[in-house]
Amino acid sequence: MIDLALALPLSSGAALAPTALAPTAVGLGLRAEHHSDFAAFLAQPTALPVDFLEIHAENYLHPGSPAQGLVLALAERLPISLHSVGLSLGSAEGVDEIHLARIAELAEACSPVLISDHLAWCRVGGRYLNDLLPLPYTSDALDVLVENIDRVQTRLGRKLLLENPSTYVGFTASDWPEGAFIAEVLRRTGCGLLLDVNNIYVSAQNQGVPPEDWLAAYPLATAEEIHLAGHTRRDGPEGVILIDTHAAPVAPAVWQLYESVLSQIGPRPTLIEWDADLPELAILLAEAEAARQRMPV
Fold this sequence. Notes:
By secondary structure, the protein is α/β, with parallel strands linked by helices. Helix content is about 35%, strand content about 20%. α1 (about 35-40) packs across α2.
């Protein structure tokens, strides 16, 4: 495990993390369909309608591009959470140093309050796959994940948040419950937890486990950000399966699970994710307000 307090000497050139988000902050994922809406907000002196924005890092890696220009302008008005989907932290091939360097350059440019990626892998043989693929929860997989997270945190000079996955089946080879596996990763690396409540619900339902039981082994107190999203129900040959599509409003059962989490750990910065079949921005803002209203006082 690296000691992040010792890994950030000023002489290293590592940027200090910006001020943390308020626990009651609510945000949205910035998507291309709403770039014009947020560009219009920038032209007004009034406050923007959310507390922070989260960007998918891989969409904004080109310096000088209009998309990155918008993000940098927004970063002067709102805190930014930098969410990568391509570090492939679970890859036995290690971290792609070129990709990591580009993520680091973007982080330096926009000074995000949080940086995160997934408990997953998406690269093999130097090729990237268009999905976030699950890992078996074994000691070997744990060692790989720890090494890769240490490499990322050392390069960024920042704590990384690790997001729990959505899964559809379990590995017979797994030796750890998911929550206990994540807790051990956090213990060995000093990274934090990005708790995706929809992923908890989807994984538990697909594997026939009550969602509250799935959460029981999770180190909930370490959560520094929460994601909420919609899923899609589909009929399969063996019954209903839930797909983590991010293409619908947050389901009532996920809202209920979110309230249960908050009752245990108190408010946490919460993001509404919506990636497909995007509605108008007003609907996303209403979802964000629904999260705000559920925050304990």
